[in-house]
What we know:
There is one protein chain. Helix content is 28%, strand content 17%. The protein has helices spanning 16-24, 48-62, 69-82, 99-104, 115-119, 124-130, 140-143, 157-169, 210-219, 262-275, 284-291, 332-336, 347-351, 390-401, 463-467, and strands spanning 37-44, 92-97, 148-154, 176-184, 186-187, 193-194, 237-238, 249-260, 356-357, 360-362, 379-386, 429-432, 440-443, 450-460. Strands 7, 8, 9, 10, 11 and 14 form a 6-stranded antiparallel beta sheet that branches. A hairpin with a 7-residue loop joins strand 12 (429-432) and strand 13. The mean pLDDT is 96.
Amino acid sequence: MPVDLSEPLSWKTATGDADTMLQNLQANILKGHVREHLHILLVQFGEGPAGAAEARAFLAGLVPLMKSAKEHLEEVEGFKRNGSSGVSNTPYVGVGLTKAGYDRLGLSDRAPSDAAFERGMRDDGTRSKLNDPDVAQWEAGYREEIHAVVLVGDAEPGPADARLKKVEELLTGSLRVLGKEVGRGMRNANGDGIEHFGYVDGRSQPLFLKEDLEDERRGTDGVSVWDPGEELSRILVVDPAAPDAATDFGSYFVLRKLEQNVRAFRKAEEELADALKLDNDDRERAGAMLVGRFKDGTPLTLQATPGAHSPVMNDFTYASDGAADKCPFQAHIRKTNPRGSGGFEPPKAERRHLMARRGQTYGERTDGPGDELPEGGVGLLFMAFNADLVDQFEFTQLNWANNAGFPDPGSEPAPGLDPVIGQGSRPPATWPRVWGQEEGQEVPAPAQTVTMKGGEYFFMPSLAFLRSL
Ligand code: HEM
């Protein structure tokens, strides 16, 4: 039976091509791999036939250090059933190639053909499309031509570091490491993962496995209003360089280093609260209006105060908030997933743009309570898997986050840019002064507090391809 890409997959009952696909697919694509401690290496291959041979040997050498999607899912299942005494958990190693990487390998004619992948993120056309800063302003590791990315992640620092060492031992000859990143998970008092502005992150994800959907149905606020189930075709594409198109799949991978000015974001929260004359406990709502959730993850469209964090709620749409007087149109999560309310496409078509986010925070926080907040050096290593970079990541950044006119506000003034990730000039926007009441007030746009420091588009090929090198 061919792999059915038109719906989520039940991995436990998968047989035939679907089972082989799971054995040939890299981990972390269909389901996020734990990566509290994450290393990222940006690698450049050498030139000519010798460079290609060394690059091939490096990629083939990675295979024994990697696990398949199926092995990962079995590990998670074993852990769930038996705790750590069941199947042992091993570090995650993932590898992706750029278009230039395929060229250096001598595989230009078998490289994936997504238009954004072919352009790359450093390309002038890509940068002007997304309003990204000049490459000269990017961090050093991203300014040169990158050919591969290697991710090494684990729940604990020891195994992650040991596995990184094994990867580094393979980097011989003409292979150069252009840059290294270290990601480290952050958690709040409830144990939920957060980003540097202090908000729960990674809660809302498309789910590609029927078992994950079942867990969501049973273990959370449910899936009856917002169904996160997504078809495999939203994340998997046939790997054109692998032996068998029926079983060998990969996924396009976005990496963007996004620096967060935490002090400026806190100021923006305070300024919005002042401008709207929010008092006492209600001041927290200012930050929630920028993000669309309170710090503890409570969706602002559902309630005016935090507290819905156990579990963090995700079973909602904006259907009962059509005038955006609870959650503003421009709030980050409403911009990046309007949940059927964007107004430009039918809900089903609108969902096409969602991607699987696999980001991790970077940078050490040394500030204690009452200390000055960091202005730089910390942020998000934004990572996401896509089946179509133009229609998913680029669409979200360009047509939604950077577009002052999205979502369609009906008769209201334009919503303005996404206050968290919008890039471009920021017109003033209207914000609800009182939760749930149609009393909007125009306020100058909050300053841009997230700065792109570099990034690239990759394809994470199938293990079958890597084994064939
Ligand atoms: C959700 C923060 C960058 C797309 C969220 C959430 C937070 C957050 C706090 C809510 C948690 C959740 O619903 O999972 C940030 C920060 C960023 C950043 C601080 C940069 C430093 C991006 C980028 C994109 C993006 C670059 C895409 C272009 C999304 C999407 C959601 C989300 C799609 C889920 C919305 C939903 O389904 O309701 N982000 N984010 N984010 N973010 Fe971001």
